[in-house]
Every structure is written in structure tokens, then in C-alpha cells.
Amino acid sequence: MSKKNDKEEAAPSDDKGKLRDYDKQMEKLTIELAHLQAWVKKTGARIVIIFEGRDAAGKGGIIKRLTERVSPRVFRIAALPAPSDREKTQMYMQRYIAQLPAGGEIVIFDRSWYNRAGVDRVMGFCSEKQARRFLELAPRFEAVIVESGTILLKYFLTVSEEEQERRFRRRIDDPVRQWKLSPMDVESYQKWWDYSRAYDEMLRMTDSDHAPWWIVQSDDKKRARINCISHILKSIPYERVKFDPPDLGKRQKRPGDYVEDSTPRRNVPDVV
Questions:
Q1: Does the model's pTM come out above 0.85?
Q2: How many domains does the structure of the chain reveal?
Q3: What are phi and psi of 204, to 5 degrees?
């Protein structure tokens, strides 16, 4: 894939800044994701994509569009819960290391080891000393990942105070979205500026040439999806793999002695 400048990578819009042809653009990107998948399977490439950012910034929406039409055996989502009592006794990075890809896999972290620099630090789940040590060590840890031949991409989604509040209130009012609003989300809403300080330092201390942070402006969810997925595709040196269609051959003839089974079976009712 050829590199393009930042201006060319932006999602097309009209004179008023409104995103054009979202569905058509997403369809093109989905086809490219299928080509990426074929290349990863053929070459045995290992890819890690990290998504961090504000609560309600749209991480889940981007991840959904990345994975909804590809194989879960290639595109694997790692969304780890709070550490268990056993995991709390382990080296901090240990449970994340276990999620890193084997050959032919793309692992998407829906939040990652950067919990230590964000929620853990702000909510007091780790000491200030532990948080600062993490910020010092994270670039070294990522250097080891990259030097092993793994492609590592890091995205931070940002959203304005006003847009985050609008999305939170929509979750409160919509039964289909209420599951997205956790007590931790409410606390993050209340501690906006504590998180701002923590994220500012995280981005400053863990941005590196070998594993840079890419900021995704996400007040416009659709634009964010187009821009982010386009950037992912442009950041991976994949090539299109020729698909060799299989020869289905001929289906076997029904044997003369085959008798349909007459055992009663439970069919799902047709409700349409």
C-alpha cells in the first residue's frame, strides 16, 4: 500500500464538513481488511493494535467495524476484565503478554497495559510510584515487541467534554445502550481533569519512534472510523494475495439405499 500524506488520509467531506458516502467508504475499507487478512494468514505476520482513550470516545465502534466481517481466528479482540486475585500477584505485564499474537494473527486490545497509566492511576488502583515506573518501562517493553517483528499500532481516541456528556446521557435514556454505562464510566466523567493530566503524561512519556501514539478525533464517530481504519491499512505493508477459487467438483449422487430419518425433530418456530 502506498503512503499518503495526512491531508489525503482524511475522510472526504463537503464544504460544510459533513462526511460523504460513509457506507460506500466503509465497504471499500472492509474489502481491504479482507485482503489484509489474507496477507496475514499467508505470511504469518503478527500485528497488535491498541485502542485507548476517553470513555464513550468510540473505541468499540471502530473495533466492531474492523472485525464484523473477518475471521475471529485472525482478528482477535483482547478486552481483559479487572485482574483476578491470582493475576494481582503476577508481574503487571504478564497477563497482557499472554494475549500477544502468534503468526497469522491480529490482536486488537480494547484497552491494554495502558490501564496502569490511566484508570489505575486516577482511581488509586496502583501507587504513584508504580504508575511512574510503568511510564518509564512501557517504551522498552514495546521496543521488544517491535524488535521481534511484530507490527504495533497505538491509537488514542479523544472526545470533547460536551460530546462525552451527550453520549453518556443517551446511554442513560436508551435501554439498548445502558449496559455500556458502568460505575467506572460515571467516575471518569466526574474526574475529567484528573484523567486529562494522566493521559497528557502518558502520551508524552510513551510516544516513541518505534511505537508512536496516533490521536483520533472522535466527536464525529463516522469520520473517526473512516480515518482510523484507513490509517491502519496504510500503516501495514500488506499486499493483495491472489485468491485461487477451489474446484467444487461434483456432488455425490444420492445412494439408492438412503432413507430419510423419520425421528421427530424440534424445529425453531418461524415467527416471521
A1: yes
A2: 1
A3: -70, -40
